Structures are given as C-alpha cells and as structure tokens.
Sequence to fold (74 residues):
Amino acid sequence: MKKVKITVKKIARYDDLIEQYENPIEHACSMELDQTFICNGWERPDGFCLSAWDTVSSFVMALAHGGETSTMAG
Ligand SMILES: [Zn+2]
Fold:
C-alpha cells in the first residue's frame, strides 16, 4: 500500500453561522494552513481533523491502493 501525503490548502470556518448557536465551538478545526500529513492507508494521522478525515478517508484509501484522485475537499 502506498503512503499518501495530504496538504491542508483551505480551512472553512463560518463565524456567522457559529454565532447563531447557543454553544458555539471555539476550536472548530485543529489543523493549520499548509500543514502536511503522511497517511498510512486507512490510519488517520495524529492531529488530523476528525470531520475532515470522515470526508477524505475514502479518497486516501483509493490513493493508497493506486487510484488517481488528486484533488479533494473536506
Ligand atoms: Zn477541521
């Protein structure tokens, strides 16, 4: 299985929506712009945002098995 490198290119944070909730989350995302991670197949790298992983993990799996997806969002 190949290793997959992920670079954080954009973090979406909607303060206008966060403000509308009674219990706003203060740290919506643990990742930083241009931070990079090396994935070992299905394993979520340490510090990789859980909700982003939910979105990208199937792409990471495809890439780890030799697929060609190169752009994704989460
Ligand atoms: Zn996040």
